[in-house]
Specification:
There is one protein chain. The chain has 202 residues and is α/β, with parallel strands linked by helices. It is built from 7 helices and 9 strands; from the N terminus they run H-E-E-E-H-E-H-E-H-E-H-E-E-H-H-E. Helix 3 links the parallel strand 4 and strand 5.
Length: 202
């Protein structure tokens, strides 16, 4: 277990928030309202509260509007012009933005999972050891988000992250190396994908 200062220096939060919400009538997920504020703010707050000293946010759909409406001071905002290609392009853009920053790992969260808060993020962060770390939250034993990628894995992920699969192919190929951290007791891993899912928002 590393102390908090080491974790803040070594692990950057990486929030994927570029999606256009195609199944939500084209309303970007980052701008969905939850507890009176845009969803992207809640996701950033969870990363910060868990101990990520720096947070990079990948934007895509209506990025100018997200910048205007959301309070993201202190975040590094990364534009992904290829966001329509899917989550893989945002993951590649986010990891590329961390190159040269000194970060030794990226803790990746998704903007459309408000049921995953500080507690789950902190558990995954706490399992970080070094740049070879590969850690994933699990829900009743099933791998989910957030996921921590040590820097030693970034190049491999960038090569295989295509479409909406994100890092799935890489994680499948390296399953034996993944440390699973059970989080079902502190988080709910639902996605806000369809209009029916909007019932989860408050």
């Amino acid at each position: 277990m590393r102390d908090n200062q080491d974790l803040q220096a070594d692990v950057a939060g990486l929030l994927l928030a570029a999606g256009g919400g195609r199944r939500l009538g084209g309303h970007p997920k980052a701008l969905l309202t939850h507890r009176g504020r845009p969803l992207v703010e809640h996701a950033v707050a969870a990363l910060r509260a868990a101990g990520c000293g720096r947070v990079h946010v990948v934007l895509g759909a209506r990025s100018d509007e997200v910048r205007r409406r959301a309070e993201l001071a202190g975040c590094v905002l990364v534009d992904n012009p290829d966001w329509t290609e899917g989550m893989g392009s945002s993951l590649r853009a986010g990891l590329a933005s961390l190159t040269g920053t000194g970060a030794r790992a990226a803790l990746v969260g998704l903007v459309d999972q408000p049921g995953i808060g500080r507690a789950a993020v902190a558990r995954v962060l706490g399992a970080y050891e070094d740049e070879k770390s590969l850690v994933s939250a699990a829900y009743d034993g099933v791998r989910g988000h957030p996921v921590l990628f040590g820097a030693a894995h970034w190049a491999g992920i960038e090569e295989t992250a295509v479409g909406d699969r994100g890092a799935r192919a890489y994680l499948t190929a390296h399953e034996a190396e993944i440390r699973l951290v059970e989080c079902a007791d502190v988080a709910e891993p639902y996605d806000i994908d369809t209009e029916a899912d909007l019932s989860h928002l408050e």
